[in-house]
Specification:
The chain has 105 residues and is an alpha+beta fold. It is globular. It has a 4-stranded mixed sheet, covered by helices on one side. A hairpin with a 2-residue loop joins strand 3 and strand 4.
């Protein structure tokens, strides 16, 4: 799945993610966040190197349980899941060099 440009208000259930198979990049943030906007070129470029990786962008904020369940504090937060288990995360990346090692795990 290619790069996803906008954050979705509809979030998957945590149980669904925990039971998942394969590798998934979960990104938390909001479209209006300047840190999220600044990170997008690096994230998009890094994902071009990983065309088979599923990328899900989830809108986060007050009342959003999924972000709290992953203890997200700052945006954007990128979490790599493999078979439903977190194997790595990057917070507020600005360069491809910050994102690429996460995707290589």
């Amino acid at each position: 799945m290619p790069y996803v440009a906008t954050y979705s208000a509809a979030a998957p259930e945590r149980a669904e993610l925990d039971a998942g198979s394969g590798t998934l990049l979960l990104e938390f943030g909001v479209d209006w966040c300047p840190h999220c906007q600044a990170a997008q070129p690096a994230i998009e470029q890094a994902l071009t190197e990983q065309p088979a990786l599923t990328h899900i962008k989830v809108e986060d904020g007050a009342g959003r349980r999924l972000g709290r369940s992953f203890r997200v504090k700052l945006w954007p937060t990128l979490i790599l899941l493999r078979d439903g288990v977190e194997v790595g995360r990057v917070v507020r990346p600005l360069t491809v060099d910050e994102v690429a090692p996460l995707l290589a795990l």
